[in-house]
Every structure is written in C-alpha cells, then in structure tokens.
Amino acid sequence: MPCPTKEFRIMNPIVSINKLCKTYASGHQALNSVSLDIYEGEILALLGPNGAGKTTLISAICGIVSPTSGSVTIGGYDNLRQFRKARELIGLVPQELTLGAFETVWNTINFSRGLFGKKKNTHYLEQLLKDLSLFDKRDSELRTLSGGMKRRVLIAKALSHEPRILFLDEPTAGVDVELRKDMWNMVARLRKSGVTIILTTHYIEEAESIADRVGVINNGELLLVEQKQSLMQNLGKKQLIIELRETIDSIPASLNHYALDLVNEGQCLAYTYDTLSKQTGITALLQAISAAGLSLRDLHVKQSSLEDIFVDLVKS
C-alpha cells in the first residue's frame, strides 16, 4: 500500500497528540511535551529503550493514563471528554498478559465485542480465530493455554470489535517464531483494509521491515518521527570496507586525512561517508591507498541499519 501523500497527511490525521505531558506523583516525568500526528492506514513504529515512555504514551492515547497536560484526539473525538466514542476506534494489545483463568477463548472475544456495542458476527470472530491459529482452541479455558496462545487471545480481543486503529505494545516480546509470523501476516491484511497500526518494539528489524514511519522516543521525549526510507537516507551512513592483501599494524600517516578505521585485525580499512554528500572522496582515497603502497584484495559497501541509527540517536 503506498504511503499517503503529503497533502493527504496534512488533512487526515486519525490520531492527533498535542504537547502531551505526564508526570507521576513520584516526580518522574514519563512524557515531555509529545506532539505527533498519526495518519489513517499507516504503520508507525515507536522505538525506544526500556523506560523511554513508549507504554505511557500508548496508555495516554488510549485513555488508560490521564496526562498531566496536553490533549489527544482520535478520529476527531477528544479521548478524555469523549472517551467512549474515541475508545471504540481503538484495539489495544498490551505488553502484559492480562486475561482471566476460567473463561473460554470464544466467550472472551465474544464478550469483548459486546462491550463495544457491536452486533453479533459469528463469521467474523471465527475467521479471526482461524487467522490467529486459535480456532481449535475456541472452547478451551484460558488457564489451559500456553503463553504464546494467550498472546494470540489478546490480539483477538483487540480486534474483536473491528477497530480502525490497532496498538501493539511489544507484541512479539518473548513469543515464538510461528506467532510472530502469524501476527505480521495479520498486520499486512489489516493494513490493506485501511487499519492504522502503531507498534512499539525492541525488534528493530521488524520496524525496519514493516513500518512506513519510525518514531524514536527516549526519556519521555519524541526525538524524531520520519518516513523510514527518509530516516535511513538522512541519518544512515555507508561504510566502504577495503580488504587488503596483507595485514597492517597501523594506518599510514599519509592516509590520516581520511579518518579511516583499521578493522578485522588489520586486514581491512573502513571508510565512513555521508550518503547525501556530492563528493564521497572514495576515488581520491583509493588513489591515496595505492600511493601508500597498500594492495587491495576486495571492496564492499555496508549500509547503516535502523538499529545503528537508533543507537546513535539515543546516545546523542
């Protein structure tokens, strides 16, 4: 699904967060003036270390935590003054396994759908359970399920009332590979149907593979939100790895101008350059290496990953 145009984004945020702050009684400021628009049909990945404020932000958006100041609107509804209308649009998969013990899978999701005033739709719920490999467990009590199966039930609960927005708070933390695959297949289907998905994760490769935009949050502050490809281009760097025919103990003084790193136990030189620069300096570097009496075995380029960018942003 193509990303919305700039004009579409300006006109159609489905979630608008304005100067959101949250300070707890202990004095800890979990959110510090966070402002963000989330657009219909996009996948937004929120990255940040433990304690960065990701879960607090989601909880505030969903009306579970009351902010100290600021506002949130969801589909045009204020999430505090018009809580019920706003909450009907949201499906939330929490990080913690919060389920009862003796209820069955079917009754759990059927009851959850009824809480939002949705009409009975057996076909929809059955298909939902099939998509999550839960259909065979529909009559099982929750206490008999494994942790991975309980995670699937949480996802089914969140989707039972057909929300327009789905929040996934660390959804694949500690789950098996099969569930992770099922979940991302479902995310792809939901996105095609126009559902907006907000994801927090420690699995940066997941954000890199599925997100349209990436937000980085740390110490309660939203450091940036950018299109994933734009972020990779603007903040990512490329490294030219120069493999030498013979190992060296130190970089020749004539090459100091290029700020090279000696890597792989003296077998390679690493040259980092800006992807947006008109002049990379690679041609001059290779000529200087030859003039320094070094022979090349091979060359290859390494692109910064989203994880590299994230680490650099949090450190800065």
In short:
This protein is α/β, with parallel strands linked by helices and 316 residues long. It is 33% helix and 28% strand. The protein is built from eleven helices and 14 strands.
Q: Treating each run of at least 4 consecutive H or I residues as one helix, how many helices?
A: 11
Counting helices, strands and paired strands, the structural category is: alpha/beta
Largest sheet entry: 6 strands, mixed
Q: Give the overall average pLDDT.
A: 86
Provide the CATH superfamily of the largest domain.
Answer: P-loop containing nucleotide triphosphate hydrolases
What is the spatial order of strands in the main beta sheet? 6-7-8-3-9-10
* Rough outline: elongated
| Binned strand content | 25-35%
What CATH calls the topology of the largest domain is Rossmann fold
CATH architecture of the largest domain: 3-Layer(aba) Sandwich
Unreliable runs, pLDDT <50, ≥5 residues? 1-10
Number of β-strand runs: 14
Structural description of this entry:
The chain is of the alpha/beta class. The protein folds into 2 domains: 6-233, Rossmann fold (3-Layer(aba) Sandwich); 237-315, Alpha-Beta Plaits (2-Layer Sandwich), CATH 3.30.70. Helices cover 33% and strands 28% of the residues. It contains 11 helices and 14 strands. The chain has helices spanning 6-11, 54-61, 83-88, 105-115, 122-131, 147-159, 177-192, 204-210, 228-235, 282-291, 306-315, and strands at residues 13-23, 29-39, 43-47, 69-74, 77-78, 90-93, 165-169, 196-200, 213-218, 221-227, 237-244, 261-263, 268-274, 296-303. The strands form 3 sheets. It has a 6-stranded mixed beta sheet, with helices on both faces. A 4-stranded antiparallel beta sheet has the order 2-1-4-5. Strand 9 (213-218) and strand 10 form a beta hairpin. The longest helix is centred in the middle third of the chain and has 16 residues, at 177-192. The radius of gyration is 24 Å and the shape is elongated.
